[in-house]
Amino acid sequence: MKFKVTNWQEYEAGLRRRGSLTLWITPDALAGWAAPRRKTRGGQPRYSDLAIETTLMLGMVFGLRLRQNEGFLNSVLELMALDLTVPDHTTLSQRARTWKPSSKSNDRQSVAAGPIHVLIDSTGLKIYGAGQWLEEKHGAKSRRGWRKLHLAVDADGGEIIAHSLTNQGTGDVSQLEPLLDQIDEEIGQLTTDGAYDGTPTYHAVLRHSSGARVVIPPRSNAVERPNVQACCQRDGHIASMQIDGRLKWQTSTGYGKRALVETAMGRYKGIIGPRLRALSCLAQQTEAAIGVTILNRMLACGRPKSVRFQASAGAIK
Length: 317
Hints:
Layout: E1 2-5, H1 8-18, H2 27-31, H3 49-61, H4 66-79, H5 89-95, E2 116-126, H6 132-138, E3 146-154, E4 160-167, H7 176-181, E5 187-191, H8 199-208, E6 213-215, H9 232-244, H10 246-253, H11 259-272, H12 281-301, E7 306-309
Parallel strand pairs: 2-5, 5-6
Antiparallel strand pairs: 1-7, 2-3, 3-4
Helix pairs in contact: 1-12, 3-4, 3-12, 4-5, 9-10, 11-12
């Protein structure tokens, strides 16, 4: 099986734009850099959430620590001749725990015309603690283990449309409804792996979109439950597998598209990184949210359009 990228020039230009140092700040951003006047009791913050988000985002894109991030943005603003102060590394560390996303950070880059096909999965991200070598060599125990990043991806555009970050003991099914609550569009189909198999998953999806098709491979020992109305789709999957086998069921339901959410998780670990730098859980959630925003922005710069073709026998050596 071979694939060819049909928009290579456009995609290559988009890849170059991802590393561009060309920055611009809109008048709205300049006006919103300072925090609005606080009307409740407490100290007056100096920087808005937009300023914190911008600074953290630049540091994450270029792989900078908080102090280097502060110096990087300072030099950029000096070159742009802008009279703006930059949040120092202490402020960034503290505000990352209370950061709230701006209205523009949650906007979709592309809005589907009709119901969307949603793919859901989770992956692990390492956090601060003893390294693997130290554990194996000296038996040191990590102070913490890892976090779970739950993603919901648009199968057509590849964009991450919902996410959540939890501790390592959180079950995947428990995060399904929080992910669905972040999706405003109508869902035409939801596809995920067998870890989500069960009545609660079907109930949650159908509450969000009553006409949604749920594609989850039932367990190997699953049996039909004709008296349970909410599981009629699951019974259909069980019957189809018993008649045609698992491979034909995957082809007929489009289950193979689930690989796209694994691709999104690979992009996150390859571009943002396989571990979280922040130490507190709240700051880690901010880090993951900004990482997802960065990936969606990069995807909007350019994405490949590939088609499948049959390779000739002479081309294979």
